Amino acid sequence: MASSVAWKIMILKVKKLHKDAKLPTHGHPGDAGMDFYAMENVVFPPGKQMHVRTGVAIEIPEGYVGLVWDKSSIAFNLGLKIMGGVIDAGYRGELIMNLLNISDKEVIIEKGHKVAQMIIQKFEHCEILETDKISETVRDIGREGSTGHK
């Protein structure tokens, strides 16, 4: 069945910083996240954090942000979690993914392997205004468990 969704297409400029770098891709039509690829082999000792170079830089349009997320298969199967993940529109350097091995086993990411995904999202820039009072809500200052434990 054909989709009736009309997608607005954004052009994302991507610059290869190294000839072996792989451009980001979408796994399936309509996927929100773009996959980014490792430019070199990286060995993650258990419990250690390592950087994975992608070899690419991107030009995110003003008014948008790149949000970097785990690849679910890597997090679920290998125990690698993204640490950090906000790429501002003004950044033009190489995208270097920072991952933590939360497993008790050594994990090897090979060159060309998908390491992270990014969603480009519009955001509202806000002016910061200091105040002595903020509005109250039904939840108010309730934190974890504020809706009950059942």
TrEMBL record:
Q: Supply one GO BP term.
A: dUMP biosynthetic process
Question: What InterPro entries would the database entry show?
Answer: dUTPase, dUTPase-like, dUTPase-like_sf, dUTPase_trimeric
Keyword flag Hydrolase: yes
Q: Which domain of life is it from?
A: Bacteria
GO terms for MF: dUTP diphosphatase activity; magnesium ion binding
Q: Any stretches that span the bilayer, and where are they?
A: none
User: Which reactions does this protein catalyse?
Assistant: dUTP + H2O = dUMP + diphosphate + H(+)
Task: Supply the alphabetized keyword list.
Answer: Hydrolase, Nucleotide metabolism
Quote the Pfam families the UniProt record gives: dUTPase
The EC number(s) given in the record are 3.6.1.23
Boundaries of each dUTPase-like domain copy?
Answer: 20-148
According to its UniProt record, which protein family does this protein belong to? Belongs to the dUTPase family.
PANTHER family to which the protein is assigned, alphabetical: DEOXYURIDINE 5'-TRIPHOSPHATE NUCLEOTIDOHYDROLASE
The protein's name in its UniProt record:
dUTP diphosphatase
